[in-house]
């Protein structure tokens, strides 16, 4: 296993799944497998951002997965290594509550709200 803070590089999701399956088969501790999943998926996601947004800048992290503080902190740290600044939610939740608020605002504006 890898203790928190140890870098994990994940080539692709298939590789991550194979590493998790091998660890489970070999009796690796659940905590170590959980760390591998979070760190590996964070690495994968950060590299997808880099591939999609070639010039480092500001990116937003949103959606239910970013309600997970560990995952969010790992993605944010990995993006910072690549020169990106990640914005996250602070007042509005990253999951369905934020989506509902956005839908309510869109409806209000569409109906002529000011």
Q: What is the molecular shape?
A: elongated
List SSEs in N-to-C order.
Answer: HHEHEH
CA radius of gyration is 17 Å
pLDDT < 50 stretches: none
Number of strands: 2
> How would a crystallographer describe the biggest sheet?
2 strands, parallel
Helix content: 55-70%
Helix vs. strand class? mainly alpha
Please count the helical segments.
Answer: 4
What would the average pLDDT be, to the nearest integer? Answer: 88
Strand order, sheet with most strands:
1-2
Q: What share of residues are in beta strands?
A: 5-15%
CA-to-CA gap between the ends? 55 Å
Characterization of this structure:
Helix content is about 55%, strand content about 5%. It is built from 4 helices and 2 strands. It has helices at about 15-25, 30-50, 70-80, 95-110; strands at about 60, 85. The model has no long low-confidence stretch (mean pLDDT about 90).
């Amino acid at each position: 296993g890898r203790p928190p803070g140890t870098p994990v590089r994940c080539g692709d999701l298939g590789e991550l799944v194979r590493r998790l399956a091998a660890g489970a088969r070999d009796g690796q501790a659940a905590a170590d497998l959980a760390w591998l999943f979070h760190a590996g998926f964070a690495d994968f996601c950060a590299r997808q951002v880099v591939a999609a947004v070639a010039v480092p800048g500001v990116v937003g992290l949103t959606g239910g997965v970013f309600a997970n503080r560990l995952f969010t902190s790992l993605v944010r740290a990995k993006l910072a290594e690549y020169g990106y600044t990640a914005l996250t939610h602070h007042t509005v939740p990253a999951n369905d509550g934020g989506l509902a608020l956005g839908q309510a605002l869109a409806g209000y504006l569409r109906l002529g709200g000011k």
